[in-house]
Design goal:
TIM Barrel
Length: 383
């Protein structure tokens, strides 16, 4: 395992993100397969992984419980645990968030007395003002917990545009120790992640990476690209290329991967056993893939937009729409859309309330794109 130094700590370069944990067959997002998760955690720790990341909304609030239960089998000092305050949910208008209530709940659910790393979750143009306003005292509370030793290191995750990132750093950057951004070879240009890295470097903040495989989008590419990858590196998987690309970017201290099964864990541990950055010709392959992918809806399936008040399954509509773009003729999507997809889940039920728009980390104009998805999927001819 490759390790990077962060202050007095030695962190595994691969971290286990718990947004996409294994589920019991036939279950919903809260029905985590604890037995499989335990095996994955065992494999991670045996492979040198010492950083585990969760968040308040993951798996409908059950991620914290599941990873806490799994890690409780190990000495507390043998791993680093990160959690997040869901400040981005303030803009939903669903409920008022009390930082003390949530923080105490998180400690209890995870079964720990402190968090090694704690993040302000999903800072964006809609939520950053809550932290910048001294009357809210959100940030004051977490700084107090840090002073009391219940938070060892305080940082934030950010889906904002580069200008928004700079704005937040001007307001609160002197109180932050690290920043977690979406960084991969598609978003290097698509979401201007290159500029975000430059901003963080200027502020002296180390980079934590989320969505290195773009929610699985970079794990399965078109046949031509994958053939080129196999020819160049026969022994490496398609996802490994996304991680190798990150090894060409000199900043990341931590790379979080939301692994769902043991095979993914084993493959990633193997990838992070040594550094093998991409050559110039290999970079051309991934950037060529990025050009092809840029036409898709940039949905990662994070489900921050859910539940939809109108019952639309937003991520599944976008996933199927992207599938038609990948196959170009849409044939493989005809039956899933016209036969298997529930009418109540379809994009046509969107009432354009706009609730989902500020919640989307990718900045997708969801109501507009749902309308386009419905029209194009309806138009798929029967094969």
């Amino acid at each position: 395992m490759i390790y990077h130094e962060f202050k007095e700590l030695k962190l595994s370069s691969l971290g286990f993100g718990t947004m996409r944990l294994p589920l019991i067959p036939g279950g919903g997002e809260q029905d985590i397969d604890q037995e499989t998760l335990d095996r994955m955690v065992d494999c991670a720790i045996a492979g040198g992984v010492n950083y585990f990341d969760t968040a308040y909304p993951y798996h409908g609030g059950c991620s914290e419980l599941a990873i806490g239960k799994s890690l409780a089998r190990y000495p507390r000092e043998s791993f680093y645990l990160a959690d997040k305050f869901p400040g981005h949910q303030i803009v939903k208008g669903v409920k008022k968030l009390d930082p003390e209530t949530i923080f105490e709940e998180q400690l209890k659910k995870c079964g720990v007395e402190y968090f090694d790393f704690y993040l302000l979750h999903n800072i964006n143009e809609h939520s950053m003002s809550y932290y910048g306003n001294p009357e809210n005292k959100y940030l004051d509370y977490f700084l107090e917990q840090k002073a009391n030793g219940r938070i060892k290191h305080l940082g934030f995750s950010c889906h904002s545009a580069a200008d928004g990132l700079e704005q937040f750093l001007q307001m609160c950057g002197d109180k932050m120790e690290f920043c977690q951004i979406q960084l991969n070879y598609l978003d290097w240009t698509l979401q201007n992640a290159k500029k975000k890295c430059e901003i963080l470097k200027a502020h002296g903040l180390p980079v934590w990476v989320m969505e290195p495989v773009r929610g699985g989008r970079l794990a399965k590419l078109d046949d031509e690209t994958e053939a080129a990858m196999r020819a160049a590196r026969p022994d490496e998987s398609t996802p490994a290329w996304a991680f190798r690309w990150l090894q060409t970017v000199p900043q990341p201290t931590m790379v979080l991967s939301g692994m769902t099964n043991l095979a993914q864990m084993q493959d990633n541990i193997n990838t992070f056993s040594e550094e093998k950055p991409l050559s110039g010709d290999e970079l051309s392959i991934v950037y060529g893939a990025a050009e092809k992918l840029a036409k898709f809806v940039p949905c990662t399936g994070c489900r921050y937009c859910m539940p939809c008040p109108a019952g639309v399954n937003i991520p599944e509509n976008f996933q199927l729409w992207n599938q038609t773009a990948k196959t170009q003729n849409g044939a493989s999507a005809w039956r899933p859309w016209h036969v298997n997809f529930g009418e109540e889940d379809k994009a046509k039920n969107c009432v354009r309330c706009g609730r989902c728009v500020p919640l989307c980390p990718q900045g997708i104009p969801i109501p507009d794109d749902l309308a386009r998805a419905q029209a194009e999927l309806d138009a798929i001819p029967k094969p």
